[in-house]
Amino acid sequence: MLAILSGHIIFRNVDLRFLRIFRLIRVFHAFKLLRYSKAVERLRDVFESIKSEIILFGCFSIILLYVSATGIYYFESMVQPEKFSSIPECLW
Description:
By secondary structure, this protein is mainly alpha-helical. The chain is built from five helices and no strands. The chain has helices at 2-8, 20-33, 38-49, 51-76, 87-91. Helix 1 (2-8) crosses helix 2.
């Protein structure tokens, strides 16, 4: 209740930032309720079954991103050396 009131009541010269912790507690309480949901349980089972595919896709994406940044550095560093000074700059 304090979390709701802190968002709706406006006091002058009173610092109510400490009441934000109650909002955070409310969010974590909602996450606790998710463990009893069948849909969340099924979704967790699906992610566990395709975990290796997700990891493979992530690794492939990182490699592709690095190769693309290397290509950008190779082709653009001569034309715009201040913008593309290194491969990490090209990644950014």
